[in-house]
Design brief:
With 630 residues, this protein is an alpha+beta fold. The chain has a seven-stranded antiparallel sheet, with helices on both faces. Strands 15, 17, 18, 20, 22 and 23 form a six-stranded mixed sheet that branches. The protein has a four-stranded antiparallel sheet with strand order 1-13-12-11, covered by helices on one side. α8 crosses α13 and α9 (495-505) runs parallel beside α13 (616-628). It is elongated and about 125 Å long. Residues 1-43, 234-240, 262-270 and 349-363 have low confidence and may be disordered.
Length: 630
């Protein structure tokens, strides 16, 4: 006979009759089993317990124990709580009272086996709490289920001392799944009484440092155990299925897949009414506990919750089925779009027949919601209407997690004009024109270029950056050509030339001293007065006490420094993108000032080249920007 564990619900009335219950447990267990909406439990004793199943089991048992104890609080009644958890595993003994460590000691006395379980004790005199749990799980590498922990002394919310017990449903991958009979704040997170708590073994042990360990008990089913047929259990209806049984030895539930049956007859001939789910938010952030709640309905003995998740094909296959769901239950779900559906089930169908009758359950309309990442939607492009130079576009975005769509406006790109061309160059008397064309849309712009005026130099072309500065220098007398028709704009400038150009741009002031300190300057030279003026004003001193070196090539850094000093050394700018400027160099502040004022740019976007020769075209351009532009 092929057997497998069946994660199905059991009917409370038959379960009560199938389990060997002591008088104390039966007194409050029977009352609970007759509660129409009391939760049932899928017992997972030693295997197949996923983390979600363990959380679900904790929720069920808390509700059951709460009703079984007949109180809304477990203050001082931890033994009620633990007894119920063990009771559903088929481990039964006469209930003694609320003192936790007394109950623990009584379970130690069961010895060897009970309800099909082997009982192994880890006494406090031989183990610490952490040592016992590590021994059971082989230091977290092996899963374990059904562990009872006892403490001799515990502190209640009222500060009083009393014995205590708690029950660990399972330790999976080193994570402890348990609950408490009181509100517990574990690792900074507050958990209401009976709520599932998940933490590491170390965190669990650290939390209970306030209590004196009584010991630890592990309940396990022998590996060689074979289930007997035991008691027949009811299953969900509405589809073919195999019957489920509960083993009379250990209480574990299994399914006989060799037989297909159908539950058909009704206890009171009434299907449940249609449930109404309470409103849900349409969207949640990842990490949010999603709450599912609905109003109770007539003739329902339990509820089944179905979660469907959107796949990459746009379909909603079943993601999770939660048997014995209860209103107010919560789930942490990964990102995605979901549909949720609940069934109200009447477990009163007692006959076992072949396929014949209608389903004894009724579902309400599907409710949709979605979950996105901690930082909101993760958008991908679904469709794009491209923007143009003058008109905006539209991009359609799709969230890859939940399927939400969003339309995003795209601003116009604006024209991107390429390099200018000159269909007609201006002459001395005639205007010319400049043309630019947008590289994206082909838009053409024509600009009139005025006649050049006085430009006698054949090597100064209109399209060059130094054209206007050379014409300005020639017309104002700041600088002349190297001959009548040539300016030589690419030629290097000497120290004598640049101080002369600068001296003329500033109005050719007379030097105060007529005597000359420099052996390499003679009266009558074109640069004689300019050099004396530059030296006595501190704009450009000699290379030593007796030499000015007027014929030495001047660098870009040197000329910008001369110009900066002539302007009174104003405050430099805040910085520049030039990577070849070193703070502390004599030209550093001068170059920052010239760059910020638009007087001198770099040789490229990130280099100024302060040690490169300064050409005649560059010198008159810097002077024109400083003195000639309106």
């Amino acid at each position: 006979m092929k057997k497998r564990i069946c994660l199905a619900a059991l009917v409370f009335a038959l379960l009560l009759g199938s389990l060997p219950v002591t008088a104390g447990a039966a007194a409050w267990g029977a009352e609970l089993f007759q509660t129409p909406q009391g939760p049932s439990n899928t017992v997972l004793p030693n295997s197949l317990a996923s983390p979600s199943a363990l959380r679900q089991q904790i929720q069920y048992i808390y509700q059951a124990a709460k009703r079984g104890a007949g109180t809304s609080t477990f203050k001082g009644y931890c033994a009620w709580y633990v007894n119920w958890q063990l009771y559903l595993l088929g481990i039964n003994r006469e209930f003694v009272g609320g003192n936790g460590n007394q109950e623990f000691d009584n379970y130690c006395d069961l010895t060897r086996s009970n309800g099909g379980y082997n009982i192994t004790a880890y006494p406090a005199k031989s183990y610490s709490l952490r040592g016992a749990l590590n021994a059971i799980t082989e230091s977290g590498t092996k899963d374990a289920y059904n562990i009872l922990v006892g403490f001799q002394v515990g502190s209640g919310a009222d500060g009083l001392k009393y014995g205590h017990t708690c029950f660990i449903h399972g330790i999976v991958d080193g994570q402890v799944y348990y609950s408490e009979s009181f509100a517990a704040t574990v690792d900074g997170v507050k958990h209401p009484k009976g709520a599932p708590i998940v933490c590491s073994i170390d965190t669990f042990c650290d939390y209970y440092t306030w209590a004196v360990l009584d010991g630890v008990i592990l309940f396990t089913i022998p590996a060689a155990h074979v289930h007997d047929k035991g008691t027949f259990l009811f299953q969900d209806t509405g589809h073919p299925h195999s019957p489920c049984y509960q083993c009379s030895l250990c209480g574990e539930i299994w399914q006989d897949t060799a037989v297909t049956q159908y539950v058909s007859s009704c206890r009171d001939c009434n299907l449940p009414e249609t449930p109404a789910m309470n409103p849900m938010e349409p969207a949640y952030l990842l990490g949010t506990e999603i709450s599912f709640s609905w109003e109770p309905v007539k003739n329902a003995t339990r509820y089944v919750l179905y979660l469907y998740r959107l796949d990459e094909n746009g379909n909603y296959p079943l993601y999770e089925r939660i048997d014995n769901a209860f209103s107010g239950m919560t789930r942490s779900l990964p990102v995605g779009a979901y549909r949720v559906q609940v069934q109200a089930v009447n477990d009163g169908y007692t006959g076992v027949e072949t396929l014949a009758a209608a389903s004894p359950s009724l579902s309400f309309d599907v409710v949709q919601f979605w979950i996105c990442g901690k930082y909101g939607h993760r958008w991908t492009e679904a469709a794009v209407a491209e923007p143009t130079c003058t008109a905006g576009g539209l991009r359609s975005l799709l969230c890859r997690d939940c399927g939400e769509t969003l339309g995003e406006y795209l601003s116009p790109l604006g024209h991107s004009y390429g390099a200018a061309t000159y269909p007609v160059l201006p002459t001395l008397e005639e205007d010319g024109c400049k043309e630019t064309v947008c590289t994206r849309c082909g838009d053409r712009v024509l600009q009139t270029l005025p006649a050049t005026g006085r430009n006698p130099f054949v090597d100064v072309i209109y399209t060059k950056f130094y054209y206007a500065p050379v014409v300005w220098a020639y017309e104002t007398g700041v600088s002349y050509g190297v001959d009548v028709t040539h300016f030589l704009p690419g030629g290097a400038c000497t120290r004598g030339q640049v101080v002369t150009f600068l001296w003329r741009a500033m109005g050719s002031p007379e030097p105060s001293e007529t005597g000359c300190l420099f052996q390499d300057l003679t009266p009558g030279r074109y640069d004689y007065k300019a050099a004396l003026w530059a030296n006595e004003t501190g704009i450009a001193m000699g290379v030593d006490e007796t030499h000015f070196a007027p014929d030495q090539t001047v660098t870009r850094g040197q000329f910008v420094t001369f110009l900066y000093r002539a302007m009174g050394q104003p405050e430099p700018g805040e910085g520049s993108p030039m990577v070849d400027l070193t703070p502390g160099r004599y030209y550093y502040s001068a170059v920052l000032w010239a760059w910020a004022q638009g007087i001198a740019g770099g040789m490229d976007a990130t280099h100024f080249a302060p040690e490169a020769p300064c050409t005649r075209g560059q010198v008159v351009t810097f002077l024109h920007r400083a003195f000639g532009e309106a």
